[in-house]
Each structure stands twice: as C-alpha cells, then as structure tokens.
C-alpha cells in the first residue's frame, strides 16, 4: 500500500510527465488551428466551434457591426456564411470581451487561435505552478479532459480560471494587485461570484475600489467605442439566450449546472431553475460560513473556486479549469492524507466531471465538442456533471475535515 501511494506521489511531481503534456498540448493546438483555418487540408469539413464564434464576433465588431453580434437572426446568417455550417452559437459575452476579440480578429483565425490558446494556457499553468509548486503535474493530470477541451475549442476557460487563481494568490498576500484580476473578471461576471463575495466578507475596500475602477474603465471604453446602445443589444441577447436555455436548446449534457441536470432528468424549466437558485444560495452560504470561521486560507480558496461552479445555470465543462485551481490549493493535503485507492477514486471522479461532455460527444459520434444551440429541438442526453461534481466536493470536504480533526487531536 505504501509503495503504491509512493508511486502515485512520484507521478504527481514528474516533470517529464508535465513536459509531455505541454508538448502534446502544443501539437493539439497546431492541428486544431488547421481545422479552424483550412480543415480541407485534413480532409474534413468546416464545423462551427467555440473560437469561430469568438472570431466572428470580433470581425463584426471590427466592421462597425458589434450590435449584429448580439442579434440572433443577423448572427445566425453571418455564422452560416462564414463557416458554411448550420450550427448557431449565441453571443452573450459583455462588450468588453467583444472589444478584446475585435483586436484579436485582426489575425487570420488560425493564427488568432494559436495565440489565444497558447497564451492563455501558459497563463493558466503559471498560476497553477505558483499555487501548487512541485505538485503541478498532479493538478494538470487531474483536470486533463478540461485542458484538452480548451486547447481544442479555443474557449476562455484558461483565462477565467487563471484570473481567479491570480486573484486568490494576491488576496492571500494582501496585495492590492488582486483588484486587477477581479476587475478583469467583468468579461465573465457570473464566475466571479465566489471571489467577489469573499472580498466583501473580509471588507477589503481598497481592493474592491481598484477592481471597480478597472471594471468600470473596461465598461466605459467599450461603451465609448460601440455606443451606449450596445448594452441594450447585450441585454436582448442575454434574454434570448435565457429563452433558449429554458427550452433546452443548449447541449445541456455539457453543462455543469444544477439547472441542466434537473432539466434533463425531466423537471420543467421553472422547477429546474428553482433548484439552481437553491443550490447557488447553498454554495454561497457555505462560503460565507467558512469565511467567518478559522478555516485555513488554502481551504477557503479551494471552497471559493468550487462554490463559484454552482452559481450560474450556464456553466460549461470548459469552465471546470476552475476546479484545477481549487485542487492546486489542496493537492498537498490530499496526497498526504489519502490512501492510494482514495487518490484513484478522486481522479476518476474528476475525470468524469471534466470529461463527461467529451465522452458523450464521442459516444454519439459527434466530431466536434459543440456549445451551440439547436433552434428547433431540445438537446438530447442526461447532464450528470453537477451531481458528480457535488459528490466530488463532498468527498474532498470529508478528506480535508478528516485532516483537520486529526491535526486537532
């Protein structure tokens, strides 16, 4: 048993394994860039994937048509013309993210994808290394399916998780620079609920002031460039996306929200949303309770990440890179207190959570991991990510509580 656990810990610190993963990731990005730019070179047809939506919205903005990115009928037509597919991906990112994509869209899509995917991946690994240190390989392996998904699709999971991890590091060290990543999270505010809440609870007013200044600057800049009417367009797009969600048009099996799980198990949209709200309040309530207790900071940081995953009904599997940040804070505790069998069980649970969407796509013989909507029918497939994620959180809590009890005895 001790030898088995020792082998696991040796694997968890293997630099060769980490290097192999990074190199494989670079290769995957290069192949994916060809699939974005010229899929015919690989004998494949063009399929609308996440970064296509980013690039298309950026191109529309660069043409002075940012409002069209938020209009369903116009965006649908443009996406079909540019990609040659019948898929549709609504654009519901706030205008500051549209502005960032506008400048990125100045590059051909293949080059823009390589730059965005590799730069955000490097940022994510840097943040994880600062948190986990020598245990970085263990964290990377634990969330490998989510990493592969982001490297393939060009989603922003690395960027958002990296900003959350950077904030938590600076917040721990009581550095005002924590206001920068917190302010930048205005590009995806529903995932900033956890970090925003602990900032309020611990009354870090100066930090909140800097975060507010940065966020307002981004909002003002995008308003100045696109005009104040862009916010009405954005609001309408979010409202339409809410309608698509209520009708089950999104690929709910790829979502990690309680809403998605409840809906695919047969509850109506209203009941599923009620469960989502209850789950979000419960998660944030746990975070409030932990923040007011004497819980160790690295445990509080992990809980902040985990609670954030239960807030939004729109959470996707690519957002589970945030789970990697949570694990980075507690991986030394887990490796010290868990048996070899427990570590393998935790790994299997984590892989299931991060890879269920990919697995379902593979089982259904779908060639691309799609986050678009089908405008004429409900998405098929059960959403099991949220229940298993809750089980994983329970298991982690039990292990960490066991460690605390042993330390106090």
UniProtKB/TrEMBL annotation:
InterPro entries according to UniProt: GT87
Task: Note the topology in the membrane.
Answer: Multi-pass membrane protein
* Annotated transmembrane regions: 17-36, 103-126, 156-172, 178-198, 205-226, 258-288, 295-314, 320-336, 343-360, 380-401
Tell me the enzyme class.
transferase
Top-level lineage group: Bacteria
Question: Which keywords annotate this record?
Answer: Cell membrane, Glycosyltransferase, Membrane, Transferase, Transmembrane, Transmembrane helix
- Entry annotated with the keyword Transmembrane: yes
One example of the protein's molecular function in GO is: glycosyltransferase activity
The EC number of this protein is 2.4.-.-
- Enumerate the subcellular locations listed in this protein's record, separating them with semicolons: Cell membrane
Keyword Cell inner membrane in the entry? The reply is no
- Primary location: membrane
Q: Which family does it belong to?
A: Belongs to the glycosyltransferase 87 family.
* Record protein name field: Glycosyltransferase family 87 protein
